[in-house]
Amino acid sequence: MCGVVGYVGKNLSRSYVMQGLARLEYRGYDSAGFACLDEKTEKLGCIRAEGQLVNLVKALEGQPLDGSVGIGHTRWSTHGVVAERNAHPHVDCLKKISVVHNGIIENYQLLKEQLSKENHLFRSETDTEVIAHLIEKAISQQGLLQAMLTIVKQLQGAYAFGCIGEPFKDTVVAVRKGSPLCIGIGDKEMFVASDVLAFAGLTDQVIYLPDETIALVHAGFLELYDFEGKQLFLVPQRVAVSWANDGKNGYEHFMLKEIFEQKTGIQATVSWLRELENGPWEHLGMTETQAQELESLTLVGCGTSWHAARIGQFFFESIAKVRTSVVLASEFRYMPFLPTGHSLYMALSQSGETADTLECLRMVKGHGCPTAVLTNVASSSMVRESDGYLLTKAGQEISVASTKAFSTQLAGLYWLAHELAYQKGLIDRQAVEQAYDQLLVAAEILEDSITRYREIITQRYAPYYAQFDKAIFLGRSISYPFCLEAALKLKEISYIFAQSYPAGELKHGPIALIAPDTPLFLFSTLEPVIYQKILSNAQEIKARHGHLVVFAFEGQDELCQLADLAFTVKPVAPLLAPLAMTGLMQFFVYAIADALGRPIDKPRHLAKSVTVE
Ligand code: F6R
Fold first, then answer.
1. Which residue's CA lies nearest to atom 9 of ligand 1?
2. Of 364, 346, 248, 242, which is closest to residue 300 (Cα–Cα)?
3. 3 state SS of 70
4. What domains are defined for the chain?
5. Is 112 among the residues known to form the active site?
6. Distance between alpha carbon 362 and the CA centroid of its chain, in Å?
7. How far apart are CA 325 and CA 297, in angstroms?
8. pTM for this model (two decimals)
9. 162 C-alpha to center of ligand 1: Å?
10. What residues form DSSP beta bridges with 327?
């Protein structure tokens, strides 16, 4: 993961780099650092701090270090513990060259051993540091470009790195293989970053570095080369991205704000999809005939996006009668790939940058199969690299725990399943329009149910359930993937251990876990047959004195009476049951984490965008 930022130009770099890092902190917040060629001493200076960016801001206070060529980094640790010595930038033996890096150098151990034998002095446990030493060694023997061509042949893995150094004073070197990196072109100034957001508002002229590119970035011009040394001439593209972080808007956390932004996010998403000029298929890189003939759909994603895909499977199979498989991106890449005709492979990703998902898209594309993405970020790598895309209009999601991206993905998938059913002649246009109304109703209920329970959850239930250190989450049919999402949310923001099971599986072993210190959270559905099965599961729990909390729908009195605590939500179209419950579930979990005083927006060990495999 990690965020990489660089600046070279007519101004001093520090404020640009620090602003860029603040915007890229979603990529990791274990530590941060800034390095520049100091304008007064002309020497390389570097300051780093463990912890969130605010610590680096403090470390820089009172330090005059600044210069017109600078780089910065915000870290999500891969190699080496969280400590100042492992923070980037890393330097060579003589502290004349410094490097910031996103990715993993897979053969770093071997390189480190070789360099150590040649008396290079290593100061960290990171894989990144070998890059600084390799450059030091290569640059002593050849010019800058040749040196870079030499070292990219030695590095294995996926990486995007930026580098500055005393031997090449007016340049930021930016190198990309696998991990994303882009360059913003300003007026006698250039910006290098992992994400255009870092320099949004400063320039809209952007070059996304193609894979395996070396960029020598100077204030007024740019030299680009492929890994064979062939010069590349690329035309910048206009990318209209703005930095829309208007703060927490009075909410205690971004997560809470984003929970309450779901209703408008769902409305905006469905309106955008509904108003696409030529319908969804052209946007997805398909013809209407291809949609009609579609026989199978594969949805790929990680974490919360994978959960949304698993709920989406019910939409596509029930409404459009299309066989749908859902795969975890990190598994899919290494499974045998058996392409079939009349199929579409669709990635789901809030960020559009998740490395595992992106690599799946590349792999599928490499087999000549059609690819598409449903994402929240129009300028993302997945949009650029897939055959087609659809957007969720959740607005920027800042809290690490995904909330509004999940609900808008559900809305997008529900709507798309209806469009597909229409294309296949299974439903008429009126039914598609009805889906739109159903989504708006579910969005209303999602928000109303939080408002209804907000106070009592905050005052009573959250402090009570915050006392447990483990919990079991249960669901059936469409509520099973929803309970996976609920358990994930609880784990990541409260650090309470949560295990999820399909409720029908309980009696095959996990029922042994029922004990007074382990509450069970059971999520109901609106399908009558499944509801009856859920009732039986609740009975089994109560027969063993389990502490049962149910998330049910109004009218499901029998289930509620069995529970120690019952929340009810107004009924919706049955397949939208998880969407209607989303707000209440997220708020409940949020309130537990808040009662425990957790750093909700930036939980330990995590990052918002997972750009390493
Ligand atoms: C959990 C969460 C993660 C992400 C996952 C995929 O709250 O946010 O599980 O869902 O890392 O990220 P995207 O959707 O950006 O591909």
1. 303
2. 346
3. strand
4. 3-238 (3.60.20.10), 248-427 (3.40.50.10490), 454-601 (3.40.50.10490)
5. no
6. 18
7. 6
8. 0.90
9. 26
10. 300
Cα 65 from Cα 33, distance rounded (Å):
12
Mutate to test the pocket of ligand 1, among 195, 351, 353 (most ligand atoms within 8 A of CB): 351
Residues 6+ apart with CB under 8 A from 6: 17, 70, 71, 72, 100, 162, 164, 172, 174, 191, 192, 193, 217
Nearest atom in ligand 1 to the alpha carbon of residue 301 is 16
CA distance 470 to 593: 13
Give me the pLDDT at residue 246, please: 66
Task: Name the residue of 354, 404, 484, 600 whose CB sits within 8 Å of the most ligand 1 atoms, as the mutation to test its pocket.
Answer: 354
- List average pLDDT for each run of 10 residues in the chain, which is 613 residues long: 94 97 90 96 96 96 96 91 93 97 94 97 95 97 96 95 96 94 97 94 95 97 97 93 77 96 97 91 95 97 98 98 97 93 96 94 96 95 95 94 98 98 97 96 98 98 98 98 98 98 95 96 98 97 97 98 98 98 98 97 87 74
| Cβ contact 607:1 at 8 Å | yes
Alpha helix (H) ranges present in 222-354?
254-260, 262-274, 279-283, 288-293, 303-319, 329-332
Q: Which residues lie closer than 8 Å to 603 by C-beta, 6 or more apart? A: 400, 401, 492, 493, 495
Is the beta carbon of 402 within 6 A of some atom in ligand 1?
yes
List the one residue out of 73, 136, 130, 83 whose CA is nearest residue 106. Answer: 130
**How many alpha carbons fall within 13 Å on the CB side of residue 559?**
27
Q: Is the CB of 298 under 6 A from ligand 1?
A: no
Residue 37: both structure tokens together: 């060629």
CA distance 50 to 304: 29
Q: Which of 363, 375, 218, 152 is nearest to 283 (CA)?
A: 375
Q: Going by CA atoms, what residue is nearest to atom 5 of ligand 1?
A: 303
What span, in angstroms and rounded, lies between the C-alpha atoms of 204 and 322? 41
Judge whether 2 counts as a catalytic residue.
Answer: yes
How far away, in angstroms, is 352 Cα from ligand 1 center?
A: 10
Distance CA 152, CA 226 (A): 10
Residue type, 572: V
Indicate the angle between helix axes 429-456 and 577-595, nearest 10 degrees: 20
In 145-262, DSSP assigns E strands to 157-165, 172-177, 182-185, 189-193, 205-208, 213-217, 222-226, 231-232, 237-238
DSSP state of 249: T
> Is residue 351 lining ligand 1, measured as CB closer than 6 Å?
yes
Name the residue of 305, 332, 379 whose CB sits within 8 Å of the most ligand 1 atoms, as the mutation to test its pocket: 305
Q: What is the pLDDT of residue 20?
A: 96
- Start-to-end CA distance of the chain, whole Å, equals 9
Question: For residue 93, what are its two tokens?
Answer: 């033996």
Whether residue 385 contacts residue 362, with contact meaning beta carbons closer than 8 Å, is answered with yes
Length of the chain: 613
DSSP secondary structure code for residue 62 in this structure: T
Report the separation in Å between the CA atom of 570 and the middle of ligand 1, taken as the mean of its atom positions.
28
Cα–Cα distance for residue pair 104/1, rounded to 1 Å = 9
State whether the beta carbon of 514 lies less than 6 angstroms from ligand 1: no
